Amino acid sequence: MIDIEKARLDTPSCENVLHFNNAGSSLMPVPVFNALQRVLRDEYEVGGYEAARRAEDDLQAFYMEFAGLLNAEPDEIAFVENATRAWDMAFYGLHLKPGDRVITHASEYASNYLALLHQSRRLGFEIDIVASDQSGQIDVDALDNMIGANTKLIAITHVPTQGGLVNPAAEVGKIAQKHGVLYLLDACQSVGQINVDVAEIGCDILSGTGRKFLRGPRGTGFLYVRRGIIDQIDPPFIDLFSAKWTEANSFTLVDGAKRFENWESFVAGRVGLMEAVRYARNIGLANIEARVSALGQDLRDALLEVKGVSVHDLGLKKCGIVTFKKDGIDPALMGDTLRGDGINVSTSQMTSARLDLEPRDLKALTRASVHYFNTQDEITRFVEAVKKA
Ligand SMILES: *Cc1c(COP(=O)(O)O)cnc(C)c1O
Fold it and tell me: Is residue 196 located within the same domain as residue 333?
């Protein structure tokens, strides 16, 4: 069980604002903020390189904490400045060619889909969209049936940015393994709110960000690449960190996932994100998952009681992201109105989720996303504010 009182004491600003925007960027807990401040202060006082030297243990701990979080090995983890670039570092390094096929789903993250279009235009591979089942999640049988000899990659999103759906990532993993197809999972919204285990899911590559449900600083992200497939990806960029200049005209890539990193990076952010992972693991990801999904469902149920409100989350399994709209009020205006009441939410726009929202004729939705430090009282207050809006 989570000590909610302590979690809230560690998150002092949750007393000033009702934060239902954890899928956008959560509130950092005190130890994360302290770690950031400590490293920044060292940079200010003794110099950037010297500060990094002082932070050496924490910088190493980054890989251990992520390995523990995801059930991976430390050398399978890379720090990347955000989830999109992490995903890109793997995807743009794949050797796709004309005639190849890549499978994705309507819930895919917009920037990933743009990268698919970008590379498809350059390299000439085809993009296949796997159907959704009745519930709106990836249709696993359809996926099994559509994989052919030319299918080289399954690239899907675990939890989409624009709704509460949790895709059946482990079932997809079984199918990817059965057919020997590479499996790239965007776990940006799931890591930190769901107990994500790369071995159980069976993905080859996984990307995520620091600021969302992990509660780390902005400008941080990470990439997992399974040891056994690392040589199938040629990093799209290299530098003096990811490669060694062995002779005037030759180089070798460094071992492991560090070949996807940059030499220069946000050192304080790395340490802050390490602390965020440590903090989450202390609470326990299974505990977090249970509470977040229960609060999410309570919020959904309470919103459905409000006259004129419809809830739009798909899937058999749902998480802490809740999307809704109210008759007669534009979702963006709903967001502004709630902000005026000291409540933080986001708006999901169709233009950033075309494959998902356009066929459902949804122009926009208000997105409320809860975390474990949120409470039933906050849900009650939130629903009152939606009623009034
Ligand atoms: C936010 C988000 C991303 C992008 O993360 P960045 O760190 O902003 O690059 C990718 N995928 C999903 C599902 C997201 O919600």
Answer: no
**Which of residues 266, 282, 298 is at a domain's end?**
282
Note whether 321 and 366 are same-domain residues.
Answer: yes
259 with 208, same domain: the answer is yes
In percent, the amount of the chain with pLDDT more than 90 equals 100
Asked if 78 and 175 sit in the same domain, the reply is: yes
CA 83 to centroid of ligand 1, rounded, Å: 5
Q: Are 236 and 92 in contact (CB under 8 A)?
A: yes
Mutation to probe ligand 1, out of 188, 194, 214, 349 (largest number of atoms < 8 A from CB)? 188
Res 336: pLDDT: 97
Instruction: Specify the pLDDT at position 34.
Output: 98
Which tokens belong to 265?
């990076």
- Please state whether 284 falls in left (phi above 0), alpha (psi between -120 and 50) or beta: left
Indicate the residue among 282, 300, 323 that finishes a domain. 282
What is the number of structural domains in the chain? 2
Q: How far is the CA of 44 from the centre of ligand 1 (A)?
A: 31
221 lines ligand 1 (CB under 6 A): yes
Q: Would you place residue 255 in the very low, low, confident or very high pLDDT band (cuts 50, 70, 90)?
A: very high
Task: Determine the distance separating the centroid of ligand 1 and the alpha carbon of 209, expressed in angstroms.
Answer: 7
How would residue 80 be classed by pLDDT, with cut points 50, 70 and 90?
A: very high
**What pLDDT is recorded for position 348?**
96
What DSSP string runs through 30-95?
HHHHHHHHHHHHHHHHH-HHHHHHHTHHHHHHHHHHHHHHHT--GGGEEEESSHHHHHHHHHTTB-
How much is the average pLDDT of 218-243? 97
pLDDT digits (tens, 9 = 90+) for 44-74: 999 999 999 999 999 999 999 999 999 999 9
Q: Are residues 21 and 48 in the same domain?
A: no
CA 192 – ligand 1 centroid, Å: 13
Domain of residue 11 covers: 4-25+285-388
